[in-house]
Amino acid sequence: MIIKTAEFIISNTDPNKAPTTGLPEFAFIGRSNVGKSSLINMLVNRKNLAKTSSTPGKTQTINHFVINNSWYVVDLPGYGYASVNKTARQAWPVMIENYIKNRETLQNTFVLIDSRLEPQANDLDFVNWIGKTQIPFSLVFTKIDKISKGAVNKTAEAWGEKLKKTWDELPPVFFTSAEKKTGREELLGYIEDILKK
Ligand code: GTP
Ligand code: MG
User: Ligand 1 mean position to 35 CA, how many Å?
Assistant: First the structure.
């Protein structure tokens, strides 16, 4: 898919204030600092469209960006980081849950996982929760430039083992590096296929 335009639309904490144009959308979620905003910038070829930071907890709102005037990318706050104040931390899961459960135009949620870590409890909780909602999702292993191919595969296999305990079917899996632009064509191709349906 060729990205011609990418524009910021709105940032808010109330899912009801999200755009009402009815355009299809794709959300990016995962632990704080996993690389959601960086991945979005890499996908749409814009350095600073979504704000990134080396300090976890940068994105604290639901951010809509319109791509090619025809679909949205949604950058969500991270979960599972302790150093942000307690109120904000507690609001995230509720905000995220409400958004994911009620957003009728949501086509797919990309759940980002740090490829360097063995399966973490809060990631597993989130994946098991979203699996139960029956909302389509995929797993995206991020920052693969930071470790060897073998180590990335080990993480993916560990995830497969964990999920097999609960689920008959495993979600689609992607491997990305925002740094090296790895996985861009695969993710955009996947989005394009869904948009064509
Ligand atoms: P929050 O908004 O705080 O939840 O974080 P986020 O998930 O949006 O992460 P963000 O994109 O802000 O990236 C966090 C840090 O990881 C930044 O310092 C990025 O430069 C770095 N980073 C993100 N993706 C990659 C990657 O693929 N490779 C490398 N080496 N670093 C990355
Ligand atoms: Mg972010």
Answer: 3
